[in-house]
Amino acid sequence: MKPINSTPSTKAEQSGPRYWRSLDELSQSPEFIEQVQREFGPEASEMNEVDRRHFFKIMAASFALGGVGFTGCRRPESNILPHSKAPEHQIPGQPLYYASQFSLRGESIPLLVETHAGRPTKIEGNSDYKGYSGGTSLKAQASLLELYDPDRSTRYTKDGANLTKEKAFDVLKDLKASFDSSKGKGVAVLTEKSSSQTRLRLKKAFLKAYPNATWSEFEPVAMDNPKEAAALIAGSNLEPKYDLTDAERILSVDGDFLGDNPGSLGLSKQFADGRRVRSSKDEMNRLYVAESGFSLTGAMADHRKRLATSHMTALLAAAALEINLGVEGEALQPIFEKLSAGLDSETKEWISKAMADLEHFKGKSLVYAGPQLGKEAQGIALLINEKLGNLGKTLKLVEVEANPSTSIQELSEAIDAGSIDTLIISGGNPVYNAPAHYLESWGDGRTYSGDVLAQQPMILPLFDGISEIELLGRLVGEENADGYSLVYETFQKAGPKGKRAFDKFIHDGYLNDSGYKVNRSLISGMKLANVLEDAETPESPTGKDNLEVVFSVDPCVDDGRFANNGWLQECPDPMTKMTWDNAIYVSPRLANELDIVAPDSLLQITRKNPNVVKDGRSYSPVGKISIGGREVTGGIQILPGLDNYSIILPLGYGRTRTGRVGTNSGYNAYS
């Protein structure tokens, strides 16, 4: 490597223009000069035996995927007789493809899984499903690695002793007998959210057989606020679903529909289509974003406003005042004026211009409220969309099946009161609690728009585990409790009848015309007034002694369920480029007040990097955040684009007991 400050060796180099490859090179900062003068990076001289062992440790799942270690990977089999004729379509070196699905927080994505010799090796989107145009997500692709994760549950145990699979089934049989006698009294089930029709059917059968039992569903990240708001002001069993296909003007309020919000895979493709200009007559869509953090959606905004999350309800109230509220305006206007009173004039002017633009595109505009916002903000956003003529177009209220469950708080109170003596946890932590991976089990799910997807196994379970629906099937006494039979029975009750129709469903991976039905209900302004009656705007964050803390889902390890996935740990955060760690993110304004900004470079080109960087590494001061008697300690990183006095704490890290990859990585924001 030739040093950057070496003497030019040719006449052309001496007389020609001097090119630079980065702003750091142009500014000739001391850190840059020191870095380029080293032949190898600082890590090269630090490789030792411990690091090599750590390398093999974190590569364990990848080695298994490559064929090292898991010699027992098998394709599904029905007998053990030797082949007198090779299996159909199995050609050495040629892949076979199977349709399946990946689910996260009750939303499923259609997949096409590539296999070699019965071993899943690559995941892509199902291009036959037009809703996503063959797209898939980062986490869906990386979920392949978890199939081969050696830290997964590998055995059945009872009181610390190992059990065979047959003995484990006997335990389930004994549990069923005890549940039958008490009608489920003292029994509770704790699960994740799911869109599986088979699980919903088994849940209803469970609660019917055991009416005294408790069923609780929990997700660390709340995404049900839009549904709860719709139930209050439009009707029960309705859920808002967004559609950007014809959206010309979009206002996103603390949402990230291009990142990790529900439906982001389809919404990002719809948004991108609206950005394409195919002729001189085409116009791009326009995006307004108000947010406290800095998201992918914010980075794509045409007009962006930094604003504390606690002020988003006030912002929406100000937006509602800019449009014609009709006969309901007499009751709603004083409420909106009260809620928006704390906004500064600059913010009010920004939202006024945005709403004036949206009003020119009635029926082709959209106000998108981030799912983490409360029912007050969600309700105002629904009302604005109705008044702009967007209901049934860019925003649809769809009918969803009733799926009642108790909250985890209610379950915790029941446990503390001593009324629960048997707790069944199913899928609360799919990598470590549930032995069956989705690529080795039968199942089903629904997309963001409600289309039913099929899930089929590529191989037999590597550790001989059972899936969640097989567990429930045995507890409710299903005659055929294997996964295939359970999904088949659900399909016969909800879809076309017959084996041929089911085989087509499995082959295609989805069921045509099975999406949610759109409801034509209207938003009740008077009911919204009742919801907003006691709403108050929190005090504005004004300085380092009066801050707002915002919890966010990590774009890679999510809420922590993917912390042991080395591929996702290695994948950089799209905004901060951080890997294998999280940080406490603060704005440059707050960093200046805390006096933690890095010194200037020798030559200021554009904005400086406010974080200390040396030898290609970012060095962070350690900070402690105290909230309500709880504390988190982590490195502080300065991130431009944040609200001045909002602190961002990403979830998903700091786990002290997980696999060999994710243990003790980052700080635990849940604490």
Structure description:
With 671 residues, the protein is an alpha/beta fold. Helices cover 31% and strands 18% of the residues. β20 and β21 (617-619) form a beta hairpin. α8 packs parallel to α17 and α12 (312-321) packs across α13 (329-339). The longest helix has 18 residues, at 165-182. The protein is globular. It starts with 10 loop residues before the first helix and ends in a 21-residue tail after the last strand.
Question: Based on helices, strands and strand pairing, what is the structural class?
Answer: alpha/beta
The amount of helix comes to: 25-40%
Q: DSSP strand (E) fraction?
A: 15-25%
What's the story with the biggest beta sheet? 4 strands, parallel
The beta-strand count equals: 24
Low-confidence spans: pLDDT under 50, at least 5 residues?
1-9, 430-434, 601-606
**Average pLDDT level:** 83
The largest sheet has its strands arranged as 11-10-9-12
Give the number of helices.
22
Termini separation comes to 47 Å
Overall spatial form: globular
Oligomeric state of the chains present here: single chain
Rg estimate, integer Å: 28 Å
